[in-house]
Every structure is written in C-alpha cells, then in structure tokens.
Fold this sequence. Notes:
The structure is a single chain. This protein is 91% helix and 0% strand. By secondary structure, it is an all-alpha fold. The N and C termini lie far apart (128 Å). The longest helix is centred in the middle third of the chain and has 87 residues, at 3-89.
Amino acid sequence: MNRESGDSALDQAVKRLDRAVALLEQRLNKADSGLFGEDRARLAAELDEARAREKALEAAGAEASAALGRAIAEIQAALDTGAEEAAEDEPVGEEA
C-alpha cells in the first residue's frame, strides 16, 4: 500500500467528516433558534397573561380592603352607639 495514497484518503475522509460536522452544527443552530423563538413568544404571552391577572387581583384586593374598612367603621359606630345608649339608660347616682 502506498503511504501517500493512504494519507490522502485519510485526509479526504477527515475533510468530509469536518464538513459533515459543520453542516450538522449549522442545522442544529437553526433548529435551536427556531425552538427558542417559539419558546420566547410563548413565554412572552404567558407573562402578559400573568401581568393582567396580577392587575385584576390587585384591583380585587383593593376593593376587598375598602369593603372591610367600611364594615369595620360601621361595626365600630354601632358599638359606640350601643355603649352611649347603655350609659344613658343607667340611673345617675345609683349603683347596680
């Protein structure tokens, strides 16, 4: 076997392998960028939906807080009125 022709065949095989690997890497990069693009778009849409839900929950929380504040004020007013009426009903100077 001629050493020169053997090296030449080996060199050609290595070059073909290098080209095949480079082509494979290019195709993988294209596939990855397409997948990442789809993932990015899906994640952006999910983020928008989550932000909208967050705003709705914040509004509902503010409404609930205001309603609780009004209820507390009404209960406090009723308790204060009841205490005043009880004090007015007690006879002055008499001990129970």
